[in-house]
Structures are given as structure tokens and as C-alpha cells.
Amino acid sequence: MMKLINITFLLHILFLSSSSCKNNIGFQKSDPENVIKELQSRKYEYSKYLNFRKEVVEEIVVKESTIYKEGDIDLICELRMLRELKFSKAKIANFSSAQSGKCQNSQISRVRVSNSNLNNLQICNFVKLLKSEMLSIEFYNSKFDGLDLECFSDLSNLDTLALDRVDLINDKQFCNFSKKSKKLTFLRLNDSPLTNKSLDCMLELPSLKEVMLQRWKNVSEDEMQDWVTKYERKYNRKLEAQIIDPIGYER
Prior knowledge:
The chain is built from nine helices and eleven strands. The chain has helices spanning 2-30, 32-41, 72-77, 100-104, 120-127, 146-152, 171-180, 196-202, 221-235, and strands spanning 45-50, 56-63, 82-88, 91-92, 110-114, 117-118, 135-140, 158-164, 186-190, 210-212, 240-242. Helix 5 (120-127) packs parallel to helix 6 (146-152) and helix 7 (171-180) runs parallel beside helix 8 (196-202). The longest helix has 29 residues, at 2-30. The radius of gyration is 24 Å and the shape is elongated. The model is unreliable at 9-28 (pLDDT under 50).
């Protein structure tokens, strides 16, 4: 009888210890410092910088050397003060969230992809979880096509879009995007294959404050300037426009 009691007592102690360990592990995982250390140990880059508003911005960069593991996006979303997520020369086949609730509470408002080969639809679906009032999406010298543009056009809170050296979108796809993106305030499209048809569709973007449209293959700088004039007349306000290549415009 005493042996039975002792065994029962021992099992009870082991259960409590196990529960305590699980709770501690969960606590440590949720602690920002531990999350950052875990990500840095696998070659994620974490840093802070001062933006033009003199605000401290925290960012995570996924690099070519980053050792990505399934579920990392949920870890990243646990960093409540994180504002920017960047990919630089990254190659990740599967970038998705297993616990979408975590990312719904994230403060991330800017996603930048440069020189990377990613599943952009997964990036788009991740961005759709974010609740920031103004989202900035940027792709530089990276794979991006019409299906990707269609997905991002569903973002009602899209404030900034930058697409540089993106060749796999056409006028029809961009015009469909223009019909939906009514809150877009900044548009950057450099080295684009689009034509004057897309420029006409851009007149339907009512909230634009600034554009950067340089080195279009099928539109001259004079035609760009004419479009700027049309936009300003239509909305009766100034549009900040960078359409002249400071290095030179060769056709």
C-alpha cells in the first residue's frame, strides 16, 4: 500500500514538473529577447534605425545565409514592436503561418523583397493577416507576375507599392490593379514594360501623392510629363513626380 502511495505521489510530482517546464518554455519562446536570439542564431539579421519621422524602427532581414525553419513566421510575428520585414537574396520555398492569430496582432507595416526568389502568393497571404492601417509592399529585381499583382490588389490598406525591374505584368493586369487600389498614395514603377494604357489607368488612382516612374521601355519622358499634368488637372492638386532619370535616359 505504501509503495502504491509513493508511486502515485512520484507521478504527481513528475506531472507538475512537466507542466512547469512546458510553461517556462512557452514563456521563454514568447520573450522578445529570446526570440531575437533564436533568429539571430540562424543568421536572421535584427536591427533598429531612425526613420525620417525620428521614430525608432525595428526590422528583421531574411538573407541568403538565413537558416529558415517551418514556423519562423510565427516567431517573427511574436515580436510585437517589429515594423519591417525584409528579404535580401533570400530563397525560401515555403513561407507560411501555422498560427495566423499571432500575425494578426503584429505591427509589421512594411515588407520589402530584393534580389530574392520567393513564393510571392504566400508572402501576399501573410501580408493579408497584418492589420496595419497603411501597408508598404516593395519588390526590387525579384520575381513578380500578374497573379502576384492581383493578390496584392486585394489589400484595402495598401498605401505604398514599389516594383522595380519587374517584367512579368501587362497593361490589363495593371489596369485591374488600378481599379481596386483607391488608397494608394505612393507608386514606384521603374524600368517597366508597361505602356500609355497603364498610364491612363493610373489616372483612376485618386489618392496618389507621389510617383516614381523612370526608364519605361515604351513611354518617353515627355509622355510621362503629359500624364503628370493630366493627373494634377483631374484632381486639382500637386503630384510629386520623379520621371527623369538622373543618370541619363537612353532610348
